[in-house]
Write a structure and sequence with these properties.
- By secondary structure, the chain is mainly alpha-helical.
- It folds into two domains: 41 residues, no CATH class; 223 residues, Orthogonal Bundle (MetI-like fold).
- The chain contains 13 helices and no strands.
- Helix 7 runs antiparallel to helix 8.
């Protein structure tokens, strides 16, 4: 078969799409892999490989463990991400359930307002939050708490989108069946709806953690000094100079932490689906009220 015939055959194997996909993946990942490689470089160079070492992670004077500014940025990013995850995810889950089950004239307006942080450019969100904390809520000092409130503000919309998608897929049948069998609305939500939402809930926690730990714009605008500098801000400020490989090590830790969060959510979701089967566990919960 000629090349022209292969390209014209819509039922043939998509070789071009496969090649384009592999090129894109290589283009995206090779620079990242190079940066990770030089975080383990035995020398100071970020372009010439001089042997494997954990020098820039552990024991050099400028390593992540020994450099106070790098270690503080790591701790600050993890602290912000953990706090944001523990607050934004439950609020977003409750808001998603409320919007999905709300029957009233204001539901469309509320849904539209909920989407505003999602579609607003982050630079606009950062400037707006800066002005709010500088002029309106001036009792909140710039630094950790201002960053925390800013991260919660823009993270909630992502949680709502994820959980509402799952809610629309589930429908109201299981809840209504449980209430028909004598369950209160709260019991139906706690024992039927929330277990079925478990994959979306786990994904929401992971997404909020990843968004917060990777954020640069809002963290930069709301920073209050060296103690509130996060990893992305520290990387940006150091990359414009002649940075040592310890910045590569810090970026690698950021990448690994994000991948672990997202990977853990995917693993938990697959384990839940394989063990409980989602709707099967809901049927058992509904049957409990019948008994």
């Amino acid at each position: 078969m000629t090349i022209k015939a292969r390209l014209a055959n819509p039922w043939g194997r998509p070789r071009f799409l496969r090649i384009a996909t592999l090129i894109y993946i290589a283009w995206s990942l090779i620079p990242v892999l190079i940066a990770i490689q030089f975080s383990f470089n035995a020398g100071r160079s970020r372009s010439t490989w001089q042997g494997f070492s954990l020098r820039w992670y552990l024991y050099d004077a400028g390593s992540v463990l020994k450099d106070d500014s790098l270690l503080l940025a790591l701790v600050q990013s993890l602290r912000l991400a953990a706090l944001t995850m523990l607050v934004a995810a439950p609020i977003g889950i409750a808001l998603a359930i409320g919007l999905a089950r709300w029957r009233g004239r204001g539901v469309k307006a509320a849904s539209f307002l909920m989407l505003i942080p999602l579609v607003t450019p982050e630079i606009v969100m950062g400037v707006a939050l800066f002005l709010v904390f500088a002029n309106l809520y001036d009792f909140v000092a710039f630094g950790t708490w201002a960053q925390f409130l800013g991260h919660v503000t823009f993270s909630i919309s992502f949680v709502v989108i994820i959980v509402r998608g799952r809610l629309f897929a589930i429908g109201r049948d299981y809840e209504e069946a449980a209430m028909d069998l004598g369950a209160s609305p709260f019991e139906a939500m706690r024992r039927v709806l929330l277990p079925m939402l478990a994959p979306a809930i786990v994904a929401s926690f992971a997404i909020v953690f990843a968004l917060s730990i990777d954020d640069f714009v809002i963290s930069q605008f709301l920073a209050g000094g060296a103690s509130s500098i996060t990893i992305p801000v520290r990387l940006y400020s150091g990359a414009r100079l002649a940075p040592p490989p310890s910045l590569n090590a810090l970026a690698t830790l950021l990448l690994v932490t994000t991948m672990l969060a997202v990977g853990s959510a995917g693993w938990a979701t697959r384990r839940y689906n394989r063990r409980d089967g989602g709707s099967e566990s809901a049927v058992q919960a509904v049957a409990h009220f019948e008994i």
